[in-house]
Amino acid sequence: MSDNTKNDAPPERPLKAYAFDPSQGRNLGNYMTINVRNEALQPGPVGKYLVVIDYDASNDTYYEPVNLDDPAVLLRGGLDPSESDPRFHQQMTYPVPSDTIRRFEFALGRKAKWGFRGGRSPDPNRYRLRIFPHAMQEANAYYSRDLQGLVFGYFPASETDAGANLPGQTIFACLSHDIIVHETTHALIDGQRRFFMEPTGADTPAFHEGFADIVALLQHFSYKEALLEVIQKTGGLIYRLNVAPEVAPADGGPVIAPELSTENPLVQLARQFGEAMGMRAALRQALGTQPNSKDLEKLFEPHDRGAILVAAVFDAFFSVYVRKTRDLMRIAKAGGATVGPDDLHPDLANRLAKEAAKIAGQFANICIRALDYCPPIDILFGDFLRALITADYDLVPNDRYQYRAAFIEAFRLRGIRPQNVASYSEESLRWCPPEEMKGVTAPVCKGVDFDVFSLPTPAQQKRNAIILSLFGKNNAEALGLRPGIPVQAHSFHPLHRVAPDGGLRVEIVAELMQQTEVHLDPNDQQSEKFTFRGGTTIVLNREGQVRYAIQKSLGKDDDQNERLRRQREYYYAMDAISGLTTYLPPPPLDGRPMNFNLIHRGY
Q: How does pLDDT run across 386-419, given as a tens digit for each residue?
């Protein structure tokens, strides 16, 4: 073996973290190790994508940064989980976002990028996501494009109803695995779909919240020890909200702790945070209500509305899990084995855990990959269903285990109705190329320059933007754009994806954007104006042929534009419910991203 081989650094490094949050202690595999991409880290830690800045604004204090490259720390696989050591808090906020970034890059087939601009040239962190573990004394955590980072608060638990916490105990949002993933996902969505940050209707903030919850909850099923224990205690029914007690209680009810059933952490989000606020429960959960097709008509708060999207995705996930493990259960029963709580054979439990983790990973990939098949503006839940179906069909045409059928049925039961489709059939839901939508010859974009094996250079990106913008202008009608209005190629991504058969798919995804100024009140030319945007996501093959043109058009006539009418109504509704309207002038209607600080306050 050569000296070079001996000295090669390992591709990954292990770092310790909480699988859920400190309230779980060591139960259910809560002390876990995350293997992240190995890179040289400066104290902070500071890596390629992330910089942890431990500044407490409430106390105007900087905490000493942790050095994860210290040999004493490296040998231990990182610091041990601790609620009282700020250095572990800093450590916790490095591997969890890193793992989330890795999952996005794998699903999207490209490097992650952020939605904020680079900032001043002398700033060494201008292209890194900033993470503030102890930013303020407040029960909150949020992503801020202006701050270019994730902000985590800390607060005292409720004195009267703290759940499993001590009354008044300090709760750190940065120690909740779920909250970190949730906020990182907001930042990653902003990097892929910048205009999803503009609240154009009730579904746009709800989509952000629901999608971030989906990514966080699906990660639970990669925690092997927790997954195995829940499988044992639920008899394989991992979607149950409660797990069986260690000992069955007598007829009089439970009298000791082992006779109490416990909540299933796999389907709950941020339990410690929710209980500390006096909610007597986790912040949110994947399931818990029966499907109701009328909920979308009455739920408009972003978290409540987003929970409908979460429930639809997890309905589909658990449906596929039950379908794919039915044979294992049937074989076990045929062999005379019992499959009730605490009776599963260890081999069966391991098989079920392996299957659940695999399906969860596939669902996460489908959901993340669907971002590339969404329109570039004004996302609706129905658009996301169409994106899911198209994204999965595009890579896996043979839907052997009926993943797409499970998505369709779950979304239908929750009342999510896509626009401009004839039915809930898979063929109707898939996005179409221009020739099928408009009966025109699909245009071909010539001259787009990229290398299969490397990232585009700035010069290539500039040339590609000019070519794509001109392509959109010259083929506006075929691509669902309004002729006569400038077209800007807002983004351009070469994608590299591997299909289940091992084949490499190389494609290009770009956003072609347009905008116009309109009056809030169409009948009052003195009323405030706002920017009304439209655009098309195009998916090109390597030859430049348009495979999909996913449109949110400006329309040809403002007076007949249903999307513009809905956006105006939403702005009126938001102005009416704002508690500050009486005292302050209304904020600008456009050019203002969502304020997650306000949306997440109190979660």
A: 999 999 999 999 998 999 999 999 999 999 999 9
To which H or E segment does residue 468 belong? helix 458-474
CA-wise closest residue to 99 among 210, 14, 226 = 14
CATH number of 3-192: 3.10.170.10
- Is residue 535 within 8 Å of residue 377, measured between CB atoms? yes
The span from the CA of 381 to the CA of 376, in Å, is 14
Highest mean pLDDT among 162-176, 363-377, 434-448: 363-377
Report phi then psi at 452, rounded to 5: -60, -35
Euclidean distance between CA atoms 583 and 305, whole angstroms: 29
Contact 478, 440 (CB under 8 A): yes
Distance CA 359, CA 316 (A): 11
Bridge-partner residues for 116, per DSSP?
none
Pick the closest to residue 78 from 48, 23, 34 (CA basis). 34
Beta carbons within 10 angstroms of residue 420's beta carbon: 9
For tokens 């952020």, the residue is 114
Kindly report which listed range (79-88, 232-241, 316-325, 572-581) carries the lowest average pLDDT score. Answer: 572-581
Measured CA to CA, the distance from residue 253 to residue 202 in angstroms comes to 45
Furthest CA-CA distance within the chain: 80
Are residues 127 and 114 in contact, defined by beta-carbon separation less than 8 angstroms?
yes
**Contact (CB, 8 A) for 210 and 177:** no
Q: What amino acid is encoded at 67 in this protein?
A: N
Instruction: Enter the tokens of residue 468.
Output: 């794509």
Looking at the chain, the number of H-run helices and the number of E-run strands are 17, 17
Q: Provide the token pair at 75.
A: 């040998």
Can you give the pLDDT at residue 273?
A: 82
Q: Where are the domains of the chain?
A: 3-192, 217-239+286-429, 444-600
Spatial distance between the Cα atoms of 51 and 382, rounded to a whole number of angstroms: 36
pLDDT in tens, 288-297: 678 888 999 9
> CA 185, CA 306: separation in Å to the nearest integer?
14
Sign of the CA dihedral running 496, 498, 499, 505: positive
What H or E segment, with its residue span, contains residue 262? strand 262-263
Q: 55: how many CB neighbours lie within 10 A of its CB?
A: 14
DSSP sequence for 517-562: EEESSTT-TTSPEEEEEEEEEEEE-TT-BEEEEEEE---S-GGG-H
